[in-house]
Amino acid sequence: MKDRILIVGAGLVGSLWAVLLAKRGYQVEVFELRNDPRKAGFKGGRSINLAMSDRGWKAMERAGIKDTIRQQAIPMRGRKMHDTAGQLTFQPYGDQDQAIYSVSRGGLNIELIDIADQYDNLKFHFGYKCLGVVAEEAKAHFEHRDTGEHLTVNADRIFGTDGAFSAVRRSLMKALPRFNYSQSFLDYGYKELHIPPTTDGKHALDPNALHIWPRGQFMMIALPNVDGSFTGTLFLAYEGQTPAFDQLNTDEEIMAFFQTYFADAIPLIPNLLEEFRENPTSSLITIRCSPWRYEDKVLIMGDASHAIVPFYGQGMNSGFEDCTLLDELIDAHDGNWAEIIEAFNHSRIKDANAIADLALRNFIEMRDKVADPKFLLRKEIAAHFNKIYPEFLPLYSQVTFSHIPYSEALEEGHAQDALFEEILVLDGIEHNWKDNPEVDRIFRKWMQGRPVLATS
Amino acid sequence: MKDRILIVGAGLVGSLWAVLLAKRGYQVEVFELRNDPRKAGFKGGRSINLAMSDRGWKAMERAGIKDTIRQQAIPMRGRKMHDTAGQLTFQPYGDQDQAIYSVSRGGLNIELIDIADQYDNLKFHFGYKCLGVVAEEAKAHFEHRDTGEHLTVNADRIFGTDGAFSAVRRSLMKALPRFNYSQSFLDYGYKELHIPPTTDGKHALDPNALHIWPRGQFMMIALPNVDGSFTGTLFLAYEGQTPAFDQLNTDEEIMAFFQTYFADAIPLIPNLLEEFRENPTSSLITIRCSPWRYEDKVLIMGDASHAIVPFYGQGMNSGFEDCTLLDELIDAHDGNWAEIIEAFNHSRIKDANAIADLALRNFIEMRDKVADPKFLLRKEIAAHFNKIYPEFLPLYSQVTFSHIPYSEALEEGHAQDALFEEILVLDGIEHNWKDNPEVDRIFRKWMQGRPVLATS
């Protein structure tokens, strides 16, 4: 008889993990706070689209829905920067055949739930709020949000995939004697703004790019949706700096702000003032903790154990990679859960911390550096190195287009920083970097000291 | 009519803060989980003595009990290191007239409660567990630990001085929209071991020193008590390293460990095996959070907002300094609490983070570096600089014998690290540092770049 598995949370990670476990024949029960999104529809307004990259696709493949999702995904081959004069520049993410993909969170979640629901050994229970788990007994308490019914569920193992404000994590925090935990908010909030399709139903901007309006201390971005619209997101300090959300109160202040910084976007957002006033300002949290498990009985995954800021587009991807890695560990340890969970807990936390760091660092890159000539020059030289020496992979590609552990990518990123610090100070480098023997010498010497990275 | 003030927690910081507020005529109610220590006695076994340094004494002076406490305090003028062969070396903390003072936590707490209790406008309530506060209404819920009685207390302002596992902080965490919080445990635990007086009632070791048995990855220390005993504390990894607590299970293993590393301490600890087995292994936590206040209604202080590891002897001192600074702010802002609390929250958090960092860093210094000749050489040269240029204050002195904000001391510490990195690599520095023109040149140049620190 296979283990009874309880999954708390049927978001993206929870429903994917449910599919992978059901496939293997485990008895899976999934409890979710929200109502069934297939009946209730998805609440929009926040995080309506996400960027799927290689780590995510690998997991989709494992779940058998790569092709289905691919059909609803829009490839974004690079960043398109909008300067204050409305001038556009394009910066590819990688090779011409490489892209990240704008996907709908709601659509993807429904797809995963649908697939999971086909298994007889898997059952969803919607509308149940988790009140906490009793870790040492692998049981969880729930309350139905409408009926108030209380329910206790016993299992052999519990997986907490209940997001950044995880109830399962809260229980672990009490049950474990030395639980390291940090929650850290940026002083920035974000607000979503809608860019509808043009009157003839087309995208109002190039749909095959992630649009960025980098403005130094703040920025706006826009990702394409399949219906021809874009979801724009303004990232701005809550207060204290100028400009900041708390400085933008009257219609005049809001319009003046957009006219100064995002003039070319104003005609694209017809309900700008209304949306600015009525859409919520959401916060940006980073969560780190350790350990992630209670013996072999409880494990937290995805945002529940490592919520990150969205600036590297790796929140969903890292959660999906949790599922891939665990699924691989089931094979490697022949279903011995004590070993599987211990191995995952041992190796994955440093990767989660690394992508948390990378995501925070990328905020500065997106809002500021992408408009910096030195940064663009570095990108160009890095792409050139990569063409000559394919084993040289720029940091962005390692994170986005490979399966190299995040912690190794971060380390590699630091090493690449050191390399370019040497190169970018060379005289006249802006013009003479091609076929420059000194650049070549520095690069070759640097490459000799680098480890060979596993790119599979 | 003066504000009604509620203080949650009558530990060291809570009872001192109660004294300072009562002195100013506020209506003060203090609720404490434990029973009245004047009747119940103090539970020993943990944290029985603390090291009072200048920041603490300043606060004692404000409370009017400096002389009383001074009589029960034992000056420790330096570190006395015990090597594995039992050889002793002494390292002064500062000038000959400078010392840190071993004081009894219990005795000091009783003294503070006694003083506070003399005010008619101050009332203690013992045995009440805080269940949480309603921050926006400045009210708190309590339950009596014996009778189970529930009580709600309304105030104008609440101060949470309820320690590292603060219930007030837990409520702030829920009430504030973006509360940054981290709790982080060392992989080390500590265990107290008792060194009784000799048969003729004397201290078994020099009482005017803090004794350290530095062993690289772990250490033991001992602080003197007025009754002729010492409290020894072993700091050791919980697990995974050798040696570690989880490797020491049988009597043979424990004795072999002590014989190898602490042979000279064995005869001093007559109940070694019994105490090792029966005394708890306690954990070492660092807590950082921000903000510390809810409007002008709730403020957390001391360990409740900044618990640190004990290795710089600044846990109590930093909590007492919170009281001093707030008391000074009451004068500076003429009793305007919105301003006082905001100013404190604005300036003090970085200092709390700095002393947290310094305390973590000092663990490595105590267990490892104090036995390192380069480190001792640096101490010697620093003391020499200080004699010639009194404005050069070694980091330890800044933290321990001054009132310089911790964050400035930490910054100065980094700068001093850079200075000594330059000096200690000079050829033959061990022998030729005195009257060495190159040392002098490096030092003078370095001094030119330093800010003048406020030492008062």
From TrEMBL, chains A, B:
<dbReference type="GO" id="GO:0043420">
    <property type="term" value="P:anthranilate metabolic process"/>
</dbReference>
<keyword id="KW-0285">Flavoprotein</keyword>
<comment type="similarity">
    <text>Belongs to the aromatic-ring hydroxylase family. KMO subfamily.</text>
</comment>
<dbReference type="GO" id="GO:0004502">
    <property type="term" value="F:kynurenine 3-monooxygenase activity"/>
</dbReference>
<comment type="pathway">
    <text>Cofactor biosynthesis; NAD(+) biosynthesis; quinolinate from L-kynurenine: step 1/3.</text>
</comment>
<keyword id="KW-0560">Oxidoreductase</keyword>
<dbReference type="Pfam" id="PF01494">
    <property type="entry name" value="FAD_binding_3"/>
</dbReference>
<keyword id="KW-0503">Monooxygenase</keyword>
<dbReference type="InterPro" id="IPR036188">
    <property type="entry name" value="FAD/NAD-bd_sf"/>
</dbReference>
<keyword id="KW-0274">FAD</keyword>
<comment type="function">
    <text>Catalyzes the hydroxylation of L-kynurenine (L-Kyn) to form 3-hydroxy-L-kynurenine (L-3OHKyn). Required for synthesis of quinolinic acid.</text>
</comment>
<protein>
    <recommendedName>
        <fullName>Kynurenine 3-monooxygenase</fullName>
        <ecNumber>1.14.13.9</ecNumber>
    </recommendedName>
</protein>
<keyword id="KW-0662">Pyridine nucleotide biosynthesis</keyword>
<keyword id="KW-0521">NADP</keyword>
<dbReference type="GO" id="GO:0006569">
    <property type="term" value="P:L-tryptophan catabolic process"/>
</dbReference>
<dbReference type="InterPro" id="IPR002938">
    <property type="entry name" value="FAD-bd"/>
</dbReference>
<dbReference type="GO" id="GO:0009435">
    <property type="term" value="P:NAD+ biosynthetic process"/>
</dbReference>
<dbReference type="GO" id="GO:0019805">
    <property type="term" value="P:quinolinate biosynthetic process"/>
</dbReference>
<dbReference type="GO" id="GO:0070189">
    <property type="term" value="P:kynurenine metabolic process"/>
</dbReference>
<dbReference type="GO" id="GO:0071949">
    <property type="term" value="F:FAD binding"/>
</dbReference>
<dbReference type="InterPro" id="IPR027545">
    <property type="entry name" value="Kynurenine_monooxygenase"/>
</dbReference>
<feature type="domain" description="FAD-binding">
    <location>
        <begin position="5"/>
        <end position="332"/>
    </location>
</feature>
